[in-house]
Amino acid sequence: MREPDPITHRRVLTIAVPIVLSNATVPILGAVDTGVVGQMGEAAPIGAVGIGAIILTAIYWIFGFLRMGTTGLAAQALGREDDAEVAALLSRALLIAAAAGLSLVLLQTPLFWGAFQIAPASAEVETLARAYMEIRIWSAPAAIAIYGITGWLIAAERTRAVLLLQLWMNGVNILLDLWFVLGLGWGVEGVAIATFIAEWSALALGLWLCRAAFRGPDWRRAALVFDRARLLQMSAVNGDILIRSVLLQAAFVSFLFFGAGLGDVTLAANQVLLQFLHITAYALDGFAFAAEALVGQAVGAGRVTRLRRGAQMATLWAVVSVCLLALLYAFAGSWIIEVMTTSPDVRAEAKGYLPWLILAPVLGVWAFMLDGVFIGATRTRDMRNMMAVSFIVYMLSVAVLLPSFGNHGLWAAIMIMFIVRALTLLWRYPALEASVRKTNAPA
To answer: Residue 124 and residue 428: Cα distance in Å, rounded?
Structure first.
């Protein structure tokens, strides 16, 4: 086995920075989608694109486990120098994506019906949104496959390729938005067709970026791709991540629901402030992905020292980033709130809770980075279980703090969940290292 490259600051940043830049393109696309339909001079198309995109994003998000699970498993295979398994993992991810995407296409009618039962809209908005979604759903196999391709590329530390993929997809989408809607006057359907073409073209580019996996025969060897033990491992990893992600999403959705009970102004203020958390997550993604790749490779190679160094180096840069974000929120948070909303009441309410958002990056970074470590090590059962514990503690905290402290109690409960997630995962970390030592102990 060859001696692996050293884990340096430069290596961590080479993985992380392209992901941060890639994430920065996401809100730009949303703004263009909204802006082009806004030129039609009617409210309904804006609402239709907004609600249609949210529904499809929520549906596709269910399959986000494919990105994380593929990263951890592929990184470990790379660490073992098992090139055959690396290629087979890409094939498995693509097959899962194809099956999931085709299932969504077949089930689109009940899915869309259920979505509008949960989030009803006016007849005009619903009609336009359905037209939008009925076009976009046909690119579901491509959209989900891109999760797997992205995870595979991150495992190989090829995050510049991930950035190229994201820039291509969003760039094509934006250009076609402008042409189809403003040039050809296709309206809401034009936005959907632009996304459809962008996602399928991005899949083609992604496959080209992964072309090294297709040079040998391993990617199509049925005995390897459909190996029962490895399929069961992939299913277990993906299932654990799915449950963990659902619980995490449930916490944030319930946070908004609890806030709604405190009045419309408080609900709006919380929605504005949650954007600060989204910015923090976008900034930390790169360092968490670096931890996933470096830890996964170290686990595959059976090197605990490298595992620990990869985790520490990625976390160091994440901590530097969140300290800068906390300072940004402290000095520019009020201005950011004023940019996000023009309502005097919402502005005043949001500023009252800004100290929680200054604190959030510093408290949340540890759980975020430990998630990356555990994904890389594919210790996903621990992630699932510790998230369940954290969710229970969060709900108990809400029950205790909300009646006495109102929205401050609600924000305190979220901070408590961050802390509990970090502490419980930290508690399980020695077992993670021990499992690597045991697996690689001499017979």
So the answer is: 52
Do 130 and 190 form a contact (C-beta atoms < 8 A)?
no
- Rounded CA-CA distance 121/280 in Å is 31
User: 1-15+22-226 architecture in CATH?
Assistant: Orthogonal Bundle (1.10)
CA distance 108 to 130: 10
Amino acid identity, residue 431? A
Is residue 244 scored above 60 in pLDDT? yes
Phi-psi region of 278 (alpha: psi -120 to 50; beta: other; left: phi over 0): alpha
Yes or no: say if 157 and 15 are a contact pair by the CB < 8 Å rule: yes
Residue 144 burial by Cβ neighbours in a 10 Å radius (0-12, 13-18, 19+): buried
* The model scores a pTM over 0.85: yes
- Local structure of 208: helix, strand or coil: helix
Pick from 160, 29, 147: nearest CA to 92: 147
Every domain range in the chain assigned CATH 1.10.357: 1-15+22-226
HEC per residue, 271-314: HHHHHHHHHHHHHHHHHHHHHHHHHHHHHHHCCHHHHHHHHHHH
- Asked if 136 and 192 count as a contact pair (C-beta separation under 8 A), the reply is yes
**Residue in 184, 49, 54 with CA at minimum distance from that of residue 127:** 49
Among candidates 172, 181, 176, which has minimal Cα distance to 45? Answer: 181
pLDDT at 330: 94
For 295-328, the pLDDT digits (tens) are: 999 999 999 999 999 999 999 999 999 999 999 9
